[in-house]
Amino acid sequence: MSQIYEAIRSFWLPEQAATSAHVIDAPFMFILIASTIMLIGVTFYLFYLPWKYRRRSSADVPYPVKENHLLEMSWIVIPTILVFIVFFWGFKAHVDTVVAPADAYEVNVQGKKWLWQFNYNEGITTTNELVVPANRPVKLIMNSVDVLHSFYVPEFRIKHDVLPNRYSTVWFEAVRADTFQILCTEYCGTGHSVMGAKVIALGAQEWNEWVASGGGKGIQPGDSPVELGEARYTKNVCNSCHSIDGSSKVGPSFLGHWGETRNFVDGGSAVMDEDYTRESILYPAAHIVEDYQPVMPSYQGQLSDGEVYALIQYIKSINGADVPATFAEGGFGGDGDAGGADAADDAAADAPAAE
What we know:
- This protein has helices at about 1-10, 20-50, 70-100, 205-210, 225-235, 275-280, 305-320, 340-345, and strands at about 105-110, 115-120, 125, 130-135, 140-145, 150-155, 160, 170, 180-185, 195-200, 260-265, 270.
- By secondary structure, the chain is α+β, with helices and mostly antiparallel strands.
- Strands 3-2-1-5-8 form a 5-stranded mixed sheet, with no helix packed on it.
- Helix 7 (about 305-320) packs across helix 8.
């Protein structure tokens, strides 16, 4: 029987990759099986009763039908009992996935158009990559900076709305080191379909090394600013709104506009240069380009000065502008720290426009 149950469960649901996944699967399977049995029963009698009581000849005369109290009570009591079972079972499952263990590791989650940002107690910030320790409870404290989002990891069976101006919580414990998909399941605007991210569960040693490295920056002295800028273009989800082939998306393309005058909805204008691009990354609401909406989130505090500089160099490179060959000795800081500022000053000799 357990093998049949597992076969049915695995047909409808993805694998159970979190310790609490079975808490959600059990009531789901109860609802599925009970609904299937009732569907088969109702469908059977839908065809059987008209056939059984069909009029066989013109001489047939129907007789008065009297009520059956037992039958009437059964179709009231049985569904009511089933509804109560589903309610209390589902409520317990909800509480079990919202109330985290006291020793759970906490991560702050921010949903914004159209990316996920994760802030750690160690001062690390990542975008669209939730890195967590495997086999350890992880509590997510979530909020939105703009509209309603919904955080969903199918293998963990966690799905919770992420709301503006308030916090919501959910927790999980990954059963193994692996990578899992995060989805936004609440329509949040034009870029909703690209608002995906990953949960990267690491073993104990890999997790400690990742934290010790400050989030695995992996930026070395001598790295090309264009290469780092290209990496940030993908990692910070710039590619969901800004193309590099000239095509129009939610935001203007990075290709073909460098050095051009950009006209704003407030009637002003500015040349797309280093200063304008830096301001657009850190303070995107300051100037809105005509024909576009003010939906870009600010990256202030998420990108170091060095990373902003690298993004600018990457944008310049795809437009054919000259860029420095390498970073200055010492490299640039990583996710959201200020370590890149010193390196940016060192690089200023090669790139006077960098701030």
